[in-house]
Amino acid sequence: MNAIDTPASGTEAVRILAISGSLRAGSVNSALLRAAAALAGPEVKVELWDGLATVPPFSEDDEAAPGAAVEALRAAITDADALLFATPEYNTSIPGQLKNALDWASRPYGAGALTGTTAAVIGASPSGFGAKWAQAELRKVLSACGAQVVGEELCVAKAHTVLGEDGLPTDEELRTALTGLVGTLAEAARAAKAAAA
After folding, report:
1. What tens digit of pLDDT does each residue of 82-124 get?
2. What radius of gyration do the chain's Cα atoms show?
3. Helix axes 172-196, 28-39, angle to 10 degrees
């Protein structure tokens, strides 16, 4: 897991686990998560989870002993205050490896790591639609797994053209939208944490 920090001030930082649905080394969705972290406020700490490729196919036969990769995923989700997902769109839906990881994180039924979590979703694609359908699918799956999905969808179209050499969006509107979404997610996580205290 790679820590992407912004310096925390006097209050405890909100810990956001960022999960990209893409396994590609040059993924724009992963790059967007790094950009979102860089644009986050001083009281937010974002960690990019990089274990998606290691999660085995879900099988109910293995639920009693799912293995180290699944346990690491569940622990990372449980330790975070909130989750930020970025998904590409494959055949109008979310990538199979991401759905597989969510299936593992949803178990055991009613008491999985995703139950009660606060989450937000963004997505990018080279098309003009910005992974719109994939985001809708991901929001639906997260809600079914017991997560509270906050914020509006953020569809990043023509993704290969939106980031500058510094890794940040060149478009001010996108920069503002990313900053706002991370802020919304952090505030929702703070509220959920306070309510549970």
Report:
1. 999 999 999 999 999 999 999 999 999 888 999 999 999 999 9
2. 16
3. 70
